[in-house]
Design a protein that fits this description.
The protein starts with 9 loop residues before the first helix and ends in a 22-residue tail after the last helix. The protein has two domains: 6-106 and 114-129, no CATH class; 136-354, Tetratricopeptide repeat domain (Serine Threonine Protein Phosphatase 5, Tetratricopeptide repeat), CATH 1.25.40. It has 16 helices and no strands. The chain has helices at 10-22, 26-39, 48-56, 62-71, 76-101, 115-129, 136-152, 158-178, 182-205, 209-226, 229-245, 249-261, 269-284, 288-303, 319-332, 336-349. The protein is elongated and about 90 Å long. 69% of the residues lie in helices and 0% in strands. It is mainly α.
């Protein structure tokens, strides 16, 4: 088997050039790796043949890469980056070869194209394109993806949304494993919190309570790690809705209040979602004054939201939704007149055919979809 061209072997080239510059033999590099491993309280299996293999294109494991960097007096991050580029190039070449083997010379398929081959090719190309620090464009794309999902919650079936979110969350996990820039990780962590919150919303619609609780924990942890109170508030509001529909009303009240507390009741979508949910849960528990206090707070928060925050999205909340939720709260309090007035106002703001979800009593996490 012929070695790959030098331009596809950045790690091999780096090792060979540095070894020659230091005037080290293959055995000397192997001994350096043994010493580096011993300093970490372990051992290395490096040999002269192994170093020769590295210079021909073989990629060591992560520990060996670190010891190799020490032996050659190279920054570990440079060696690891070269290994990633070489691995990406190798994977692209293998996938392309495998894909080509499924086709004739005139590109007519001789049989079904292997989807795993295509996916491997796509991942390899993606890795090669985005090798190194996460670019601004890459981060922007993730944030736009998250916003598109927020809008999709209004009309996309929950099962389909779940499938699509699962695919992109798997891709997001790969991004986490590849990029270690602090600023990029902070933004990726925030996107993870928001997309995990969308998973919560989707699983609530599907009445998958156990799965919802697991994703709520992921969303909450990611929001805390991102250090973003607005995102933290929003994911807590999603969790509060899940507890409400599971019948855990006291927990729903606590979470809804926490969602408001983390932003000090500042005007944001998380607090705007949480205050009406608190009112509905308190109403279901028969707490009249707490219900009215929460509804008043919801009014004040909503009046201060900016234009983006009242958009038709899971990341927005508007007057029609508040009126609908207000009507639901008053229904629990047996205040028929107030409930009717709130429902009438909701219908004025949003045509009936745009009210969707598991019935008028649910409007889960703001499912009213108004223009």
């Amino acid at each position: 088997m012929q070695p790959e061209p030098p331009e596809e072997l950045p790690l091999a080239t780096l090792i060979a050039e540095q070894r020659q510059q230091m005037e080290l033999s293959l055995n000397a590099v192997a001994r350096g790796m043994h010493k580096a491993a011993q300093n970490e309280g372990t051992y290395s299996l490096a040999t002269r043949q192994a170093i020769h293999g590295y210079e021909r294109g073989r990629i060591p494991n992560k520990d060996s890469l670190r010891w190799l960097a020490t032996a050659l007096r190279l920054p570990a991050e440079n060696v690891l980056a070269a290994a990633r580029r070489q691995r990406a190039a190798r994977d692209v070449a293998r996938a392309a070869t495998a894909l080509a083997s499924t086709m004739t010379t005139v590109a007519a398929p001789t049989g079904p194209v292997d989807r795993h081959v295509i996916e491997s090719l796509r991942q390899g190309l993606s890795d090669a394109i985005t090798e190194g620090a996460m670019t601004e464009a890459g981060l922007d794309d993730w944030e736009q993806t998250m916003l598109r999902y927020g809008k999709a919650t209004r009309d996309r079936p929950a099962g389909l949304l779940l499938a699509h979110l699962t695919i992109d969350l798997a891709e997001l996990k790969r991004a986490f494993l590849r990029y270690r820039s602090a600023s990029a990780l902070r933004r990726l962590t925030r996107v993870t919190a928001q997309m995990s919150g969308l998973m919560c919303l989707t699983l609530i619609k599907m009445d998958e309570r156990r799965a919802f609780r697991g994703w709520a924990r992921v969303a909450r942890t990611a929001a805390l790690e991102a250090g973003d109170p607005l995102t933290h508030s929003w994911v807590l509001a999603q969790e509060a809705y899940g507890q409400y529909y599971a019948g855990d009303l006291d927990d729903a009240v606590d979470l809804a209040r926490h969602a408001q507390d983390v932003v000090r009741n500042a005007p944001c979508v998380g607090a705007a979602l949480a205050a009406p949910l608190e009112a509905r849960a308190c109403a279901a528990l028969g707490r009249h004054q707490e219900t009215r206090d929460a509804l008043q707070r919801a009014e004040e928060i909503l009046e201060s939201l900016d234009g983006d925050s009242v958009a038709a999205s899971a990341f927005g909340y508007n007057q029609a939704q508040l009126r609908f939720h207000e009507g639901n709260a008053y229904t629990h309090l047996h205040d028929t007149r107030a409930a009717w007035e709130a429902q009438e106002r909701a219908l004025e703001l949003c045509p009936p055919y745009r009210l969707h979800g598991p019935g008028l009593d649910s409007a889960r996490s703001g499912e009213l979809s108004c223009p």
